[in-house]
Write a structure and sequence with these properties.
Elements: E1 4-9, E2 16-22, E3 25-29, E4 31-34, H1 46-51, E5 57-60, H2 61-66, H3 70-75, H4 78-83, E6 89-92, H5 95-100, E7 103-108, E8 111-115, E9 122-125, H6 127-137, E10 141-142, H7 155-179, E11 184-189, H8 195-206, E12 212-215, H9 224-234, E13 244-246, H10 252-261, E14 265-268, H11 270-276, E15 279-282, E16 286-289, H12 309-313, H13 316-324, H14 328-355
Parallel strand pairs: 4-14, 5-6, 6-10, 10-11, 11-12, 12-13, 13-14
Antiparallel strand pairs: 1-2, 2-3, 7-8, 8-9, 15-16
Helix pairs in contact: 6-7, 7-8, 9-10, 10-14, 11-14, 13-14
The chain binds zinc ion.
Length: 358
């Protein structure tokens, strides 16, 4: 398979640029993927997500299987047709939400039984059913059921979660090989902060030649130094010719670090979550709050260097007014800006890698 091609390798770091082919088009890497958990990037129209440069969206299997359910989404054209998004979609397995949101979880070798956080109804996720759900959504990139070990964790817990994750991933990849039509399945390397577990997990999963490799279990509450240490340790364990994805990372300084280690893909809810609290990115990635008094009569855009819809048409003073008055347009504009900021941030790094300056 040649669905991923590395184009440029930095001579100054382990950074690289590449192209990842999917059923819904090519993705230039490194790439930041906005998150649309409920088949919507909160507060932003799909046409604006696209026009602000998003190459791919992330959505969530756990939420969509519970509501509205895979049958409806399949009937209405898969996730692309349902939400009117033309470009690629990555769906996560839902494992993370089962372990963070659902009640009464029961894990077995076969999978996990849980109660919905919405209405208490009982559900089962198996490695195979999670693949079938994502095939029903017609996701371009699918993730296998895994156990994301929390922080802090004992070595025994991390090891047992990691071993179960590997066996689930093997079941997933076998099921995927028999059913997929061009959709990619990525592996997820777990092992918490224990290097020898990361080593073992990465080596085992590579035997199955997954189309891509994710580093899971980071950004789960540990300090940034720990996140960076796990990334720096794990990336060199992953195959050179496959895309590498760190799940749940989204601050500019974290993206810069991870790209320099050789990571290609990122997702995070941060740009829209921060926006709903009035926060926006500016300059080199500093975060500011529009509700601060200093912006009361500020006629300049959120970030003078930004080309987004919010920055090209509205002042800080206006957006501050919207947020203070609790008008929904305020968070919508801040969301568009924050998404565009991160996409532009990664686009700039991609150009720098190509120019030999990163
Ligand atoms: Zn902007």
């Amino acid at each position: 398979m040649t669905h991923f091609k590395v184009n440029t390798r930095s001579t100054r770091s382990n950074a690289r640029t590449g192209v990842l082919q999917t059923n819904h088009g090519d993705i230039q890497t490194p790439v930041f993927m906005p998150v649309g958990t409920q088949a919507t990037v909160k507060g932003v129209l799909p046409m604006h997500v696209e026009s602000h440069g998003a190459q791919i969206l992330l959505s969530n299997t756990y939420h969509l299987m519970l509501r509205p359910g895979v049958d409806l989404i399949r009937q209405l054209g898969g996730l692309h047709g349902f939400m009117n998004w033309r470009r690629p979609i990555l769906t996560d397995s839902g494992g993370f939400q089962v372990f963070s949101l659902a009640a009464m979880r029961k894990i077995s070798d076969q999978g996990v039984t849980f109660s919905s956080h919405l209405d208490g109804s009982r559900h089962v996720m198996t490695p195979e059913s999670v693949i079938d759900l994502q095939l029903g959504f017609n996701s371009d990139i699918m993730m296998p059921l895994d156990i994301c070990t929390g922080y802090p964790s004992s070595r025994d817990q991390a090891e047992s979660d990691m071993l179960k994750t590997i066996s689930w991933e093997i079941q997933a990849v076998e099921h995927w090989r028999s059913k997929a039509r061009g959709q990619h399945l990525f592996a997820i390397v777990q092992g918490a902060g224990y290097r020898e577990l990361r080593d073992y997990c990465a080596a085992e999963l590579q035997k199955y030649d997954f189309p891509g490799y994710a580093i899971g279990g980071v950004s789960v509450g540990e300090p940034i130094e720990e996140i960076e240490a796990i990334i720096a340790h794990t990336v060199p364990l992953l195959p050179e010719h496959r895309p590498r994805y760190v799940m749940g990372l989204g601050l500019p300084e974290n993206l810069r670090f991870a790209i320099a280690q050789g990571v290609d893909m990122f997702d995070c809810v941060l740009p829209t979550r921060l926006a709903r609290h009035g926060q926006f990115f500016a300059g080199n990635g500093d975060r500011r709050n529009i509700k601060n008094r200093q912006f009361f009569d500020d006629s300049t855009p959120l970030d003078p260097g930004c080309d987004c819809l919010a920055c090209s048409q509205f002042s800080r003073a206006y957006i501050r007014h919207l947020m203070v008055a609790k008008e929904m347009l305020g968070a919508m504009l801040l969301s568009i800006h924050n998404i565009r900021f991160l996409i532009r941030f990664v686009d700039t790094i991609r150009s720098e890698i190509e120019n030999g300056t990163f």
